[in-house]
Structures are given as structure tokens and as C-alpha cells.
Amino acid sequence: GPVLAFRQPRGADSGVYVCEATNPSIYDPQRQSSIAEVQLTVHNLPDLTMPDPIIAVVNRPLTFHVQADIYPRLPQYTSKWAVIRSSMEYPLPQHIQPTQDGLGLQVVSPQVTDTGVYRVEVKLPVGIARGMVHLTVHSAPSVIVNAQKSGYAATLTCQATGVPMPTIQWMHNDIPMQPRRVSTNSHAQAMVEIVIRSAGDYACHATNYLGTESQSLTITVTELPDAPIGVLTTPITESLMRVGWGMPTSTQLADGYQLQAQVTASSSDGRQNAGRTTQLLPPRGASTRRRLRPATGWIPVQSSPAVLNNSYISAMVDITQLPAALRAALESHGKKAESFSALSTLWHGGEANFKSSGSGVSTVDLGQAIRFRVSAMNQKGQSRVSSPSPLQKAKVANSKSSVR
């Protein structure tokens, strides 16, 4: 037909269209047909092809473009760029400028703060097309280390920034440490906190794919630690006791503790002979009868590693190991206890209140009471011993007494 209809004209439809009309009844070949040409130009909103999310690195120049299907490709459009933060539109920073064709951006010196969404508007006589580009700026780690002393311990904090968020590792004398607390407050910042009780060299390493940043510090002690305070005991089971204590806030760092125990024997009326704190061995020349006392001396004992809970320190002691501890103490003084009877006699003054397992001593009789004292240690040496804890009996089987 004589009409050419476009239902949805597109830019690609632009061009020259030729219409030819023919009348076969006219015998003159030169007059049988007539041709007409029509130039069609279709203006349309551009199809903007946005790049994938763009990753830049701090201080490394970057240029990116938006592909726009504009027809005809004539400088009849204008473009405008803006950055979107918190749903608000802001002008471009000075170090970010549009490219010459207006369809791209040049980032001269990218910074982490440039991370965001950038929107472009392309305006033509027939309307405005919009598109958005996501830009993320990565950075190598940076580290800040702080130390805060609190009595017998110190808290070291490593705060690291970087994109992607760096991983943090504390080292003590080149040995990795487990953190006490890890926290993050943004996509680019992490903080790792450790509590230390030992002098030495500490270093914090923060790492991401752009590199590793480290900062170190040296912790020193200048004096002996103060003696522990407030020693208390709690029976946990028939064989375990929890020993807890505190440390003065003004003390030097303490990186270890020594526990000592004293066991009292049961008297016939059920009371404890606790007031008589004899030495482990009596003076030389004393008779055997005089050596026998109703209480042991202070015996060094092994415990589980000390655990810090807020400002309170505690450790577990296996009281079934106390006879072996006494045996070791006696042997260290040149007095070899070769048999169960000799050992029990030296300990209890003739009262065999230990249960025997073969040729050795296994458990403490429930009629006995135990008390502990504690000393603290650091690189300078060992503190004075604490005041003794109150006497505490081993826990009776199936006891319903509360456990703190």
C-alpha cells in the first residue's frame, strides 16, 4: 500500500526509504513507474549499558565508561554525573571528573571515601535516560596499636583498617596468640583485643590481598609482682578444689602463679588442728616423736592453668595429687619416704587418714581440711606469698552443698 507504518520505531529504523509506483498500461517504459525517496530519522532514549561493579585501588588512577546506544550519534545530548550517598545526591569531588564525551568518569586519585553509587543522566530532545555505577575503592591495611595496663595484666588493642577488611594476628615473641575479643564496626575496620600478663615483644599483623602492615611494642616489668589477695577455695568434687584469688591493681604484670597447700589431720573430737602450722621438717636433732605434728608444712602443688574471669583468677587443684607432692617435697629435703606407712606417719603424726591404692597413696580422707596460699611470678622473680585461705574440707560424695 501507499502507507508505511511503524508500530514501535527505533533508532535502527532510521534511513532512506524508497517508494516505487508502476502502471503497466502505459506502453512507454520510461513512464511506467515513478520513484520517491523518504529520509526517516528516529530519535529515541539511549539504551545505557552500565559496567559491572568497579573496583579501584587507593591512589591508582582509573577511568570507566558507560555505553550509550544513541542515534543519530550527533552531539545533541548532554550528560550529568552525581554521587549518591544515603539516598542523597551530591556533586562529584574535584578529583573525579567526567570524560570528554560525558559518558565516563576519570578518577585521578581514588580514596576509600569515594566508594559509592554514581548516577549519570543523559538528556536528549526526546527525554532523559539514567543509569548507575557501583564503585568500590580497596586499600592496603593500616594498623594502630594501643596498650592499657590494669594491675597484674595489660590489654593490647590492635585496630586495623583496610578494604577488604584485613585479618589480624597478634604475635608474642614470634608465637601466634589467641584473641580475647574481636569486633568490627564497619566493612573496613576490625579490632582485636588480647590480655597479656607476660613481658616481651608483641606485634600486630594486619593482612589483605594488597599487603601486610605490622606494628610492634615491647612490654617490660621493673619490679616483682605484689602478693595475691583474697584467696578462697571451693570444693568441686571429691578430688577437685577450685582456688581463686585477686591481684592488687597497682601491681606489676604477673605471668604465672605458684600454689602451696597445707593439710590438717582430723582430731578425735572432729575438730581441725589448724592453728599449728609446722614446717615440713623439724629442726635437725629433734626426736622422731617431736617431728610428728597434726599438720603438714606448706607443700608446692600443681594446678590447672590460671583462668582470668574479670578481675578474679582461679585454678583447679587435684587434691589426690597432694600425697605425691609431699613425697617429692620430702625427697627434695633428703628424706626418702619409701612406704605408705612412713609417708602417712610423717604427714599425719600417726593417723593413717589416707586411702591406699596398691603401694601408693590415692585420695585425701574426707575428715581432713586443706588451705592454700598463692604467690605470683614475673620476669623479675616471685612475689611474697598471700595470706592463707580459710580451711576447706573435700566435698563429700553426693553432697548437695552449693558450688560457687
Description of the structure:
It is a single chain. By secondary structure, this protein is mainly beta. The protein is 6% helix and 47% strand. The protein has three helices and 30 strands. It has helices spanning 288-291, 322-332, 340-348; strands spanning 15-22, 33-40, 47-49, 54-57, 62-65, 67-69, 78-85, 88-90, 96-98, 104-107, 116-124, 127-150, 153-163, 167-172, 175-176, 181-186, 189-196, 200-208, 211-219, 229-235, 240-246, 256-264, 299-301, 307-309, 312-318, 354-357, 360-364, 369-378, 381-382, 392-393. A hairpin with a 2-residue loop joins β7 (78-85) and β8 (88-90).
Keywords, please?
404 residues, mainly beta, 30 strands, 6% helix, rod-shaped, disordered C terminus
